[in-house]
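[scheduler] slot 2 assigned
[scheduler] job type: sequence-to-structure, two independent chains
[scheduler] chain ordering preserved from manifest
[runner] begin chain α
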Amino acid sequence: MKVPGRKPQFPPPEAPVRDGRERVVLIGLDTQERAGRAESRELTAAARQARDASLRPAEGAKAERAPQFSAAESLAELRELVISAGGNPVAEFLQSRDRPDPATLIGRGKLAELAGTAASVDAGLIIFDHDLSPSQQRNLEREFHARVIDRTQLILDIFACHARTREGQLQVELAQLEYLMPRLAGRGREMSQLGGGIGTRGPGETQLETDRRKIARRIRYAKAQLEDVRRIRAQQRQRRELVPVATVALVGYTNAGKSTLFNALTKAGVLESSKMFATLDPTIRAVTLPSRRKVLMADTVGFIRNLPHTLVSAFRATLEEVQRAALILQVSDAGNPLAAEQAAQVETVLGELEAQDKKRIQVVNKLDLLPPAEREALRDGEGVVHVSAAEGIGLERLLEAVDDALQEDPLSVVRLRVPQSEGKVLAMLEARSRISGRKYRDGLVELEARVPASVLRKLKGFLVP
């Protein structure tokens, strides 16, 4: 039995009719099954405490199901994606059904109504907040007389816009080709037999077969190129691993502020933007911790709800930095009301990358956007640090937490007696250790310091028993 859908939403009358952007109609689908899952959004106190501690279920919260986005929240996120892609959402519609229609997803009755809506607002593109099968996409395009795409195609398009390096472009191309391959069938008369009549007879080949062969060849080429990228990355990683320098990876939902935090910690100057997926190509920079140890920090692509499997596999070469990281900084937006839902999606993607068991610190970002009373009430805990990357609040505490969490190149508190003539040794201690005490006596410098193991090996002759 169908449930009446929500009426389409239009921009206010004073909104400009044209602004040079493509006009888009957004359509979401709400089923009873999905609504039932949304009821689990309210967390118990134990589950909320577990989320704040490590974003993984605590022992007392194992029975809690991961919170899910509601259909309306998912449609709002789709709107942000469209804006990031340069589109202009001119109407939205949320259809409620018991189950998706196998032919058109939303049913024939609502399809006719929505086709009229799309024509009345002069929309050239219809985007569904739901994966469409190839047959559903063809049926919908016939009814709408406009282009119809789904959420996955939209994400792929955004990725294609933001890819800057050759590696990023190859990864996007591979994901797009793998998505396109099953959707080639039956796209009109151009798929009919190539030849017919005198002078054209022979074994022949349909246009569909020709296109599939070309796409398959291009997929093989992209995969081979990405294997070369992966091999070069592995060689670079092996060289890095010869030196005891740990890698710290920033992960989190898209638009959580990872790039802003990365710039604040490394002064790298990577692109900061409120648009979704502004960061696509990874960046790695060195950071000096309070103990004077150095770590490599990696900024990665943001995660999102129902990240397409083609993207996860195509971007595996990039996301290997997450898999090999010694520590993960999981960044979240302090003021986002969907923080729990986003955290559950990040956990899902980390599971697909087999990185869910890595040591983590939860970094609650955008503290400056909270009201003063809420900001004062927040307290850092074990594995949780509250920061504002934009304002530089809490960054020292975050570096201290990273310092304490890393086991690579362990620190030792030692006493040293170094002749003042050993200027190189003293300079090395000044640069690469944390000196807590210093005395000068008879041409010697007596020091007490926290020294990394890699430096301590060079100081054996100066240790005081």
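[runner] end chain α
[runner] begin chain β
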Amino acid sequence: MSGKLDGPGIIALEEHFMHPTLADYLGPAANAPAGIKTRLYDFTGIRIEEMNAAGIDMQVLSHQSPGSQRLDEDVAVEVCRNVNDALAAVIREAPDRFSGFAMIPTALPHAAADELSRAVEELGLKGAMIHGLSRGRFTDAADFWPIYERAAALDVPIYLHPALPDKSVIERYYAPYDETHPALVKAAWGFGVETGTQAVRLILSGVFEKYPDLKIILGHLGEAIPFLLPRIDEALSRPENGSSSFADIFRNNFHITTSGFFSDAALQCCLEAMGPGRILFAVDWPYVSNSDGVDWLRNSKVDPEVKTAIFSGNAKRLLRL
């Protein structure tokens, strides 16, 4: 299992796995179609084969949604520790092919901060991933800030990953189409709206003024925020809002990935909104084909230097790979 990261390399940043330590607690919420489930539980078989076929040198692994944000407080810390230990063991077996993001028990913010430290300093993980609401709450509230304080101190990013909208939102905003078109509340619309809202709330919360070195990653080419950035910034710069820093914070503290969103037009928008140093390659495997993602970026019309930065250079710098 030799990697090729001493060349330009391809590093994929949002690539998922599943582990029984968490899945057994989530029950039906952890279900996936048979072909997807087989891949989620695999590390050295079909996962490596499909990475090699597409030319991907390294996957940065993260646990499949819905993640630890649904766990009860009495089990959350233990489950996260067990999943992170299991992930670290996988990485040790193939350190040239895998790195990873930790799971943290966000419902217990101080414990989550401590687990982030352990995962980074003892296990070598590269940050953490948060899956949507934490026990029904957005994680911008001040009682969650110990997590962001610790991430900034450790100089590692927090990846905000989608999860299903709150049940009440589904009932009010998406029914009955959530039944006839279930993707509506997921990748087609609901996932992006939820995660983009979390990012906006974080910026408005003041957490970046408190911790200016905090780094946040958004998948799916920024959950539509790059497209909307001029409009959001203009509206929030009006006198009644008392702030003109939204776009500056987004450009300075956020990174975005290409996960599951292989569009030339969308990429060009993101390059103009963010610049080439803030965009990182990701596939969203196994939900999306490795080859589809790699072939799209390889064949895109962006400059070769920009392709190299997106494929691996930006990830190497951000995650110190």
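[runner] end chain β
[qc] chain β: The radius of gyration is 19 Å.
[scheduler] slot 2 released
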